[in-house]
Design goal:
Layout: E1 2-6, E2 27-28, E3 31-32, H1 33-42, E4 49-54, H2 58-65, E5 74-79, H3 85-93, E6 101-106, E7 109-111, H4 115-124, E8 129-136, E9 144-148, E10 153-158, E11 167-177, H5 192-196, E12 205-209, E13 214-216, H6 220-230
Parallel strand pairs: 1-4, 1-6, 4-5, 8-12
Antiparallel strand pairs: 2-3, 6-11, 7-13, 8-11, 9-10
Length: about 230
């Protein structure tokens, strides 16, 4: 199985505290955040290749990981000349993959999950997409995922609202069939979360719930949390 890490975002909200490097290279202790994701993938023997989908300050990420032999898998780069959004970035990176199903990770969030269990759930449900969901006290910042708890099938993706309360959110980790992107035009700027995911509700989309660690580093507050012993 191949994996794509979406690492091309501008990281606008984080720029007050991290401005010299792109968000995926934001230091957590003495190492880039992206190292944590690659280390996690290194624990999954199924992963044969990881594609870093990069755009903003792409050369810094490429320089850091070019020729890296620290992990058991090959690292390749899908470079966008202009930002394509998360959906466009996946489409642009898919030609670098060879597996029919691909693991997608957001490059600014970390969630604990077991790839063997995720894949087993995906196969048993004959799913087109299976995402990792986590329960949070307030879904306001993220938007929520409505899940049929008897089948774990996704019923709806709800947009961010001012008050949402406790609920499940998309943790930014997906196992999906490449064919879902057949109708997306190469070079088209498109949001995976806003434009593609809602259309997959009718196409056998399922969730697997993680009760392990989850954090994103998209804001100064959560970045500080990540740097305050969260990964110790």
């Amino acid at each position: 199985m191949d994996a794509i890490i979406l690492a091309g975002g501008l990281g606008t909200r984080l720029k007050p505290v991290v401005s010299e490097v792109p968000k995926p290279l934001a230091p957590i202790g003495d190492r880039p955040f992206l190292d944590l994701l690659l280390q996690q993938l290194d624990s999954f023997e199924q992963i044969e290749k990881v594609i870093l989908a990069i755009s903003y300050k792409a050369e810094l990420i490429q320089q850091h990981y070019q020729g890296n032999d620290k992990y058991h898998f090959e690292i390749d780069f899908s470079i966008e000349d202009v930002p394509l959004g998360t959906g466009g970035a996946i489409k642009h990176a898919l030609p670098f993959t060879t597996s029919n199903e691909v693991l997608i990770l957001n490059g600014d969030s970390f969630v604990e999950f077991d790839l063997t269990d995720l894949h087993q759930t995906h196969i048993e449900n004959k799913a087109n997409l299976t995402l990792v969901a986590v329960k949070v006290n307030d879904t306001e910042r993220y938007g929520s995922v409505d899940i049929d708890m008897s089948t774990m099938r996704i019923a709806q993706f709800s947009e961010k609202q001012k008050t949402n309360g406790v609920g499940f959110i998309n943790a930014g980790c997906y196992l999906l069939k490449k064919c879902l992107f057949n109708d997306i035009t190469e070079g088209q700027k498109v949001s995976f979360e806003k434009q593609i995911l809602p259309s997959l509700v009718e196409k056998k989309a399922y969730a697997q719930i993680s009760t392990g660690k989850f954090i994103d580093i998209g804001t100064p507050k959560t970045y500080q949390q990540a740097n305050s012993g969260y990964f110790n």
